[in-house]
Amino acid sequence: MYKQMKPLLLILTFQSLSGCVTSISTQTYLPDGDKGWGVNCSYNFSSWNECYKEAGQKCGEAGYEIIEKNEKPFLKGNGILTYERNMLIKCKPRASEINMKDQNK
């Protein structure tokens, strides 16, 4: 598994050092088997707003449900206090998906 993640880790490290990345999301499976997104917004002076923005971009107008939310303070190498922020989200079904389920009943 490490070999598969190595290229991603290199990209994330480079982007976080350059200060260009504010949030990153990765598709995953939730405990109930549904698809979800892990959102990480732990980069240079980012806030929860960056996580919410990324979640909104992933799920669109239907919105999302926050399954889990974590925040952990840590000191960077230069002594600046920053926060590791992560969310696990599930996109809500779009109106068209709800209508299709109703029609199939």
Summarize the structure.
The chain is α+β, with helices and mostly antiparallel strands and 105 residues long.
The major sheet is characterized as: 4 strands, antiparallel
- Measured as a percent range, the helix fraction is 25-40%
Overall 3D shape = elongated
Q: Counting H and I runs of at least 4 residues, what is the number of helices?
A: 3
- Compute the separation of the termini in Å: 41 Å
Task: Tell me what you see in this structure.
It is a single chain. With 105 residues, the protein is α+β, with helices and mostly antiparallel strands. It has a single domain (23-103), classed as 2-Layer Sandwich (Dodecin subunit-like), CATH 3.30.1660. It is built from 3 helices and 4 strands; from the N terminus they run H-E-E-H-E-E-H. The protein has helices at residues 2-18, 48-59, 95-103, and strands spanning 24-29, 35-40, 64-75, 81-91. Strands 1-2-4-3 form a 4-stranded antiparallel β-sheet, with helices on one face. Strand 3 and strand 4 form a beta hairpin. Mean pLDDT is 77; it is low at 1-20.
What distinguishing features does this structure have?
single chain; 105 residues; Dodecin subunit-like; four-stranded antiparallel beta sheet; 3 helices
